[in-house]
Amino acid sequence: MLKTNNRRIFLPAFISPLEEKNPAVTKKQFAQRKLDLLQPLRQWLDKIEIQNRKLAKFIAKLIPAQCPFERDIILFGRKIAHIPPMCKLNPLYDEFVGLRFRALCYLVDKCGEDIQSYC
After folding, report:
1. Cβ distance 42 to 95 under 8 Å?
2. What is the torsion angle, in degrees rounded to the nearest 10, for the CA atoms of residue 93, residue 98, residue 104 and residue 105?
3. Does residue 15 carry a pLDDT above 70?
4. Is the pLDDT of residue 79 over 80?
């Protein structure tokens, strides 16, 4: 049993002890603790400039336009399972899509090629 001498106890003071005087500082410190090991690779992929027709074609062929893993499994004419697209699970997905887009833009803008065959 707790004796309070008729004093009120404010529970928020006990519930959130991490958030002391300045909650923005604690959130900022928590965000800085997060370590992203793939960040240098992400930056390197984003800095790649396409300046060669062969490289642009290679990248456009190498990186698919749609996720190749999505499948419907059909047995005796009936769909028994569906494998969802797993490309979004790739931590570098956005960087690869951006690289492919830059390669296709180079082929259209600088080389004047038709990119229908890459879509």
Report:
1. yes
2. 170
3. no
4. yes
Residue tagged 């049993």 (tokens): 1
Phi, psi of 59 (to 5 degrees): -65, -40
Closest CA relative to residue 109, chosen from 54, 67, 59, 53: 53
Mean pLDDT to the nearest integer, 103-115 = 92
From the list 50, 47, 27, 49, the residue with the least C-alpha distance to 39 is 47
- pLDDT band for position 98 (cuts 50, 70, 90): very high
> Which amino acid is present at 82?
H
**What percent helix, strand, coil does the chain show, rounded to 5?**
50, 10, 45
